Records
---
Amino acid sequence: MEFGLVMYTAHTIRKSRGDFAILLSHIVLGCKFVCTAVNKAGLAKLIGLAGETNVQGEEQKKLDVLSNEVFIKALVSSGRTCILVSEEDEEATFVEPALRGKYCVVFDPLDGSSNIDCGVSIGTIVGIYAVKDGVDPKIEDVLQPGKNMVAAGYCKYGSSCTLVLSTGKGVNGFTLDPSLGEFILTHPDIKIPIKGKSYSVNEGNAENWDGQQQSMYVEKCKYPQDGSPAKSLRYIGSMVADVHRTLLYGGFFLYPADKKSPNGKLRVLYEVFAMSYLMEQAGGQAFTGKQRALDLLPTKIHERSPIFLGSYDDVEEIKALYAAEGQK
Ligand code: AHM
Ligand code: MG
């Protein structure tokens, strides 16, 4: 690390001004809060079900509920947001007029909730859009292609707490120093390797996968015909953790459509877009099976999409398989 730690807040304020820096500092506060809650989960009896189901029909965990409340409060109190879309809330939250600002934030407060109870890495995913002034927000302000986001990031709560962020000029990673309570720039200008040695997918769904392309790709990973070594399978089942590893080591993450989830499982606004934005900013690619993921125009806030993202060359391979199928 260079002499003189580059701290997150100082770095952010240097690179941005005013409203955006304040918004980010509130997001960072939310991440620190959730990180503390995740670390104490077992001790504070925060694991287990909260007894309610969310809009996707999934059982909510206590930590999901808490994390959602934390982020809503952190974002509203920043005075810089006008619309909030959370995975946990069926409807978008329109911030009360007195506290409105120009940013719309879409987020999954605690992604990978099936991994909470066993202490595996989970995370928060965030995407940010900007509108002119936020005085008269409309739902169309968040129903925009991911390429219009002004920033995206995630915070991974694992063996370390790591915040990975892009404001459209590359990707930086910051690790929380628990003794200081500050995020330190530990991974400047992250670039994903052009090709990776691993693939990441819930292969247990293979029987139900829609179409042949992902099966062909996975077969190529396991039984390469070009003399290259077989790829390793790495799958945690927490998108933040799987994408984080993919970003740092290279490789490929896919969640295709299947018979259970005909549009894929992952949500466009706060899962697919944020991660696709980071991948592109790091030099990788993100593809839906039909188009560049960031070009998608969502029509509802909890829309889903298949997603294939990762190292540039690995995504090229799956795009080629789709292109070949389209020519038949
Ligand atoms: P969640 O938002 O309800 O936690 O679901 C999203 C998670 C992702 O983190 C992960 O990539 C995926 O679901 C795993 O799904 P599966 O268990 O079907 O492999
Ligand atoms: Mg999620």
Note: The longest strand covers residues 100-111.
---
Amino acid sequence: MDTTMNTVTNRVMPKIGDMAPDFEAVTTMGKIQFSDYAPDQWVVLFSHPADFTPVCTTELTGFAKRKAEFDALNTALLGLSIDSVHAHLGWIQNVRQNTGVLFDFPIIADIDMKVAKLYGMLQPNESETAAVRAVFIIDPYKRIRLIMYYPMNVGRNMDEILRTLQALQVSDQYQVALPLDWKSGDKVIVPPPRTVEEMNKRLEDKTLEKVDFYLAKKDLN
Ligand code: BEZ
């Protein structure tokens, strides 16, 4: 990488906990207003650098093949790249012809880069014209709950996207935290005590798997 070319970028980037910025966009399934998109569902909004490129083809094929798992988690997919809807349609048809896999979710044609800029997907030291590989997990209240940014040359990990989505949902439903490498069915972390009284109670609790009062796990259900 030519470090002399680096510029310091000082853009406002979306952050975890922010309301997802609203936008109107043209997609492969018609126009959408994001605030009205997939009401009462979680949304995984993800960008790819360009249609008809190899890593992106593997990634969108991965999203398409595992769409049923996102459906099962009450989650709608929404792709994006800075390409025209015509390019998207040509690529969708090409992949379907070559592999039999249909990209069965809307892909935003963000040719004016409006959405990419709103979501910090344009990272000029990586590319001035193409979005990086971003993933935004957005909850049913349209709040951003998790952000991943990957560079051009490194594909994402679908297991990790599904794992973190499920972890957020479990954390919300049961008011627990999830440890390193947690996956569905593993023990969960109960919130640490906040007072001496709670700490004493925790020390006496025989139902939990405890390392110490501040690190205690339990089975869900
Ligand atoms: C790819 O998807 O293979 C790719 C796209 C843009 C830049 C580098 C790689």
Note: Strands lie at 24-27, 30-33, 42-47, 75-81, 107-109, 133-138, 144-150, 188-189, 209-212, 215-218.
---
Amino acid sequence: MKQQVGIEAIAVAIPRRYLAIEDLAVARGVAPAKYTVGLGALEMAVADPSEDTVALAATAATRLLRAHDIDVSQIGMLVVGTETGVDHSKPVASFVQGLLGLPRTMRTFDTQHACYGGTAALMAACDWIASGSAGGKSALVVCSDIARYGMQSAGEPTQGGAAVAMLVSARPELLAIDHGTSGVFSTDVHDFWRPIGRREAVVDGHYSIECYLEAVAGAYRAWRERATARGFLNDASMPRSEQLARMIYHAPFCKMARKAHLHVRRCELEELAGAPLDAAALAREEREGAASFDAQVAASLLLASRVGNTYTGSLYLGLASLLHAQGTELAGQRMGLFSYGSGCSSEMFSGVVGPRAAEIIAAARLDELLADRTRIDIVEYERIMQLPREGTIAASPVPGTFGFAGVRDDRRTYAGSAAVA
Ligand code: CAA
């Protein structure tokens, strides 16, 4: 039997303030429905300079260790997926290792490829374990990012930020990954990027959607071929895209997941028909596609609709949302996950939900995290957006969290307390 590998446990950190997306729409003179219906957003996380990528990563990681009483001597690798790191050379992983007091006997590094960096980290950890190189140890994988496009930009309503920490091991009690079944698709495109030194991303928004759709179709086809060969898709009575219990998509905004799901279905229906869909088939697909989205995808979008884009963490917030809503009923079922990073690189993979998924996700206390936030108005949002990158906030971090505490002697410093001695 193939060695099991995947996600054993998960924890989340989100900024403590949020802006209601309707308030943003009103301030920008935009019909609120454009953001709430057109993009599918409800709220957007607003990170102040103390809640940087390191602080969020360390907070998520310490929550993971504390909630699951993890023996850190059993962690042999720490990888942080991020596209909004704080230094061109020193990785976020090193800061996290130091802040949490993790042992020195581990491999630490960051992975970067836009929003795909988190999946690159997860797959590196899975490969390390499955190859036997881990020698029985586990990996700590953290995805951490602040999504920032700038005020008055088209991307403004799709900002956000969060970190997701995952324990990856040979005991995948949350999600056992179908290792070796991934489908990948990558190409050199300028859809979204952030030149060195710039704080805000540059994006060719509508083109980026086209690039994402081309990638999801390509990665899905590649995954489908491998999944079929492994016997995961053998119900001849249904389209293969319907044979997964659920689909989770990278969600730069919630509507993108809907576009992706409908696109995959449409490609598959056209392949089956051997021609573009005629008017009757299109009308039928409008109804059936909407129902399929509601059943297969909608439950994974809770956090994305309340936090916004979280770049590397987006797909894994989708996993957390889905298991939070349906972890018990999904135990033992296979789901698909699609990761997209602009530039671009993408990967479709699948996994089976573990029997303890509902119990594990309950320890992430997602409802409490959302409820503990403070709603801010547009004036406060704009004030925070204009704070210097290395500005500090007078309040010290609440227990169990970390915060950037200023640059001293050219070194970034942090305040906060770790879960481990
Ligand atoms: N009521 C309801 N819906 C409305 C509406 C109204 N009054 N007015 C407009 N809409 C709808 C539009 O029809 C559109 O929906 P469809 O795409 O389904 O037609 C939607 O609202 C958005 O309208 P626009 O396309 O006119 O919006 P825009 O041009 O201002 O910007 C955007 C949209 C391009 C997504 C922009 O927010 C952006 O650039 N975002 C950042 C880039 C991004 O997220 N790209 C996604 C793929 S790249 C990726 O995934 C990597 C990553 O994380 C960045």
Note: Residues 31, 33-34, 37-39, 115, 154-155, 158, 191-192, 203, 205-206, 208-209, 212, 250, 252-253, 255-256, 309, 311, 340, 342 surround acetoacetyl-coenzyme A (CB under 6 Å).
